[in-house]
Amino acid sequence: xxxxxxxxxxxxxxAANQRALSEVxxxxxxxxxxxxxxxxxxxxxxxxxxxxxxxxHSTGGTFAGTVTxxxxxxxxxxxxxxxxxxxxVFQHPERQFILEDVEAELAFGLENLGxxxxxxxxxxxxxxxxxxxxxxxxRRIASLSGGERQRVAIAAVLAMHPQAIALDEPTSQLDxxxxxxxxxxxxxxxxxxxxxxxxxxxxxxxxxxFLDRVWSLQSGRVGDAEPRTAFQGGGARPPVVDLxxxxxxxxxxxxxxxxxxxxxxxxxxxxxxPVVSTTDGPLVARLDGVDFSYNGRAALRGxxxxxxxxxxAVLMGRNGSGKTTxxxxxxxxxxxxxxxxxxxxxxxxxxxxxDTLLFASTVRDELNTGLQSDLPAPFSEWSDxxxxxxxAGERQQVAIAALDPGAGIVLLDEPTRGLDPDVKALVALxxxxxxxxxxxxxxxxxxVEWAARFADRVLLVADGEIYAEGPPRDVLSDSLVFSTQVNxxxxxxxxxxxxxxxxxx
Amino acid sequence: MRDCGTRSDAEWGNxxxxxxxxxxxxIAERFAGNSSCSIGIERGVGPARYRGExxxxxxxxxxxxxxxxxxxxxxxxxxxxxxxxxxxxxxITLNCHPLTWLAWGSAALGLTITSRNPYxxxxxxxxxxxxxxxxxRPGAGLSLRLGLMLATLPIVFDLAFSRFGTHVMFSLPSLPxxxxxxxxxxxxxxxxxxxxxxxxxxxxxxxxxxxxxxDVLKLLPRPLYRTGTVVSLALAxxxxxxxxxxxxAEARRLRGKPGGWRxxxxxxLPLLLTTLERALQYAESLDARGFGSxxxxxxxxxxxxxxxxxxxxxxxxxxxxxxxSHAPSYDPYLxxxxxxxxxxxxxxxxxxxxxxxxxxxxxxxATDLD
Lengths: 505, 370
Description:
The structure holds 2 protein chains of 2 kinds. By secondary structure, chain A is α/β, with parallel strands linked by helices. Chain A has helices at 44-51, 54-57, 79-82, 102-113, 117-131, 146-158, 176-193, 204-207, 227-232, 239-247, 256-260, 323-331, 363-369, 379-382, 392-401, 421-436, 448-454, 472-476, 485-490; strands spanning 4-12, 21-28, 33-37, 62-69, 72-73, 86-89, 164-168, 196-200, 213-218, 221-225, 283-294, 297-308, 312-316, 338-343, 347-350, 409-413, 440-444, 457-462, 465-470. Chain A is globular, with a radius of gyration of 23 Å. Chain B folds into 2 domains: 1-89, no CATH class; 98-362, no CATH class. Chain B is built from 11 helices and 6 strands. Chain B has helices spanning 9-12, 98-114, 118-135, 142-161, 184-210, 213-219, 225-254, 264-288, 306-325, 343-350, 354-361, and strands spanning 30-31, 65-66, 74-75, 168-172, 180-183, 363-364. In chain B, helix 7 crosses helix 8. At the A-B interface, helix 3, helix 4, helix 5 and strand 15 of A face helix 7 and helix 8 of B.
């Protein structure tokens, strides 16, 4: 008997024109690991929220069909009763905590279950070991990084001994290393506990090897398939699958280990001549030896940087390495405490939380305040919608489109987080067009594949200093953390599937 | 501030010290109002490590500076006087029971509202500020600055609009509204009103530091959990709203919208939206974690210890003292010179400063090392 069964569920948000889910029928067997994928706004979050009753109990709207979780009909069971059956990890690491410190947070769900103290203690000790958050147990939540928070969030729901765990894009806000840590926890749950897991995730390559099924959403409809079949059909998929499709491999590898079997065949082939992009546009901004510290904690130490008109540069580094501060210094939002900052053009900036830029009542108004649209994205379809009702990816696109078109320096902080590959490409296209029109574009991002594909120049930042700089091929092919999947597989300066010549033997 | 005696290297610099039975690897204390002094070893960072023992990964075991003359040893910049035996960090907050603070807050607000006597006000301000200092955290000063700004408003208003009083400072020619005699009485009246506002803000600033909304939430009986959600949302989001204003104003500026007070209405809508969105997310988190689903139990009940009792009694004494001692009233328009409060009044005010003393003497909840 399936653990979860979804039977012809349709759902429409209040005041929405179309259904978010349309006659969806799916089942989840105990122990299955399911990837929920689809473009931004396709209903991934909505589908996951159906499982613990947040849809429709918390959201309202029109709900038809039945969702049964461990024998309970979600229509008659309030979400608070379902919370212990389906553990839910939200997308925003900063917005899902109730209490102030880690241990109290872990205990919160158990207190709500009314467990006896000794049992709570046992559960908490166990979950701390399972998730590996022993060093964090006495910390304040506010002092944790995004990756640490997500691990605590996973531990907090796991302590309730749910029958399944649903993760709504748990790593979309994290840097590669932190995302790796979180997904490692997820794969451990799957491998060691046999936990039934549903995960909406754009960083597919890490979990692909564990998957039992893939649910692909497209405007409210869901396709359910085996991973290989689903990936063959396109959509968001790991770069090795792209490579396999490009080279016509008969069997689709799901991960690096499987792909390695084919890799030796490519060893003899050298990459095509590297494309060296020259940044010969006029200098529009320069930073020399800039220091900046927040409350005595150094965020930048002697950072130096040049920006040229017409280039698209990308800034990469761990969380807290100083990327955002560097952008803020260029934007003039904070003043360098030492060193020189010069810029000759006006600056436009999209902060990490692009939502803060949106406050008009319709998308049309929003774009009018920023004068004109810059992306070929379907803004016309959303023009009468309320910007904050859009999905994360859609909001990001609107925020970028609303930027002042006259700005000569365009700065973006994590513009691709939470976006699916197609939208990421649209964002890059829009930025490329800006660069072609003579603007200098500087993007802080954690997205290695995106940077490898679209950047002219990559700058690596650590501890407030820029420590490596150059074309993506030079900088990223020589890195373990900031490395693309194809590069991990093949090395030799191949970053992307499309770099590899089709004529490879 | 607590006196941070510097500990000599000889006392703990022995890097070969091994654990003894009964030793606890946990030393993580933070003393109120003095975050620079402390810190030992955090519990559970890998294998238990001991003071003076070097992290096998070469990392830092505590907050301190590496002393190159003593290989493998971290020297603390300053440290508290350590007892001979290493005591475990207190697991339960000793002086932060929410009821205690609610009682203290009521007494403090009661005194603030009922007396306009400048002597009483100055005394209260000193007391409240001391309590605030004992519990302050980095970045907590914003609300006090807000209080100071608020306090200047009544002074300006009263000065400009009140024409009563006999002690004239100067007269302006017959202009509308501001023309006429400007009096000391108006200045003093405005100042006492401003002081009352500042005192109120300070009391709330203290409560913001000491009362965790989640603890108040837990005190509520289960049938009231919906109410509890609302209350804790309100408590949690007022400080966040202040942060949001800054973010939104900054975002407007980035998109080329001018700032300034005239744009305040334009900020209001996004502010409301952000706050509501956070509230919704918070409510969803509560639901997803089963809040209000079954009987409640406590993992670590907030203890009600001797310091709580003492503070409660102090709050009671202050309130009773206020009622009995007939605190002197004050109206500058009647007599400019304020009456000097009686010894009983002063004494009953002073007991409200007890949490300041306790905050310094008692170790606080051990949490982060950063």
